[in-house]
Amino acid sequence: ANLASFLPYPVLCGFFSSVGISVWMTAFKVDTGMTVQTALHSGSWKVMLDNFARHAPSVVAGAGLYVFGPKGPQYLLGIIGATIGFAYMIMGVTTTSLEEAQE
């Protein structure tokens, strides 16, 4: 038997939720150059909205995975593929190069 079978479900959910939040907060800092706390306490709505708007697609994809993920693995692949495709579509429509998008 594996160790996870001896741990209560809420403990596993809490652990993986904290890992997800930690990954997102690290990605936020790498992407924006500031921590989530710095953005929230900046006192400027423009700073907060600009920085959090960059992460809106990840929130939408996460909500989609939450709703459709338990229904089957094909939804996981579909949502990830759609997110990547949507990002490239937006880059094409706005004529943004990959180098510009990475800045």
Please characterize this protein's 3D structure.
- By secondary structure, the protein is mainly α.
- The protein has six helices and no strands.
- 1% of the residues are buried.
- The mean pLDDT is 86.
Major β-sheet profile: none
- The gyration radius over C-alpha positions equals 17 Å
Average predicted confidence as pLDDT = 86
The low-confidence runs, each spanning 5 or more residues with pLDDT under 50, are none
Number of strands: 0
| Oligomerization | single chain
Structural class designation: mainly alpha
Helix and strand run: HHHHHH
Number of helices: 6
Helix content: over 70%
Please outline the helices and strands:
Blueprint: H1 9-32, H2 36-40, H3 45-53, H4 56-68, H5 73-93, H6 98-102
Structural descriptors:
103 residues, mainly alpha, 6 helices
In a nutshell, what does this entry contain?
The chain has 103 residues and is mainly α. The protein is built from 6 helices and no strands. The protein has helices at 9-32, 36-40, 45-53, 56-68, 73-93, 98-102.
